[in-house]
Prior knowledge:
Layout: E1 2-11, E2 17-26
Antiparallel strand pairs: 1-2
Amino acid sequence: MNKSKQLFTLITSEGELQVSLKEVDVPEPKPHEVI
């Protein structure tokens, strides 16, 4: 399985914007899927 980076955002109840970058697994595409 390949790894990629994904950007996540969260707005807290106080109105603060939190931005984070996390490494996630990217599954292999199926034969009928296009990347």
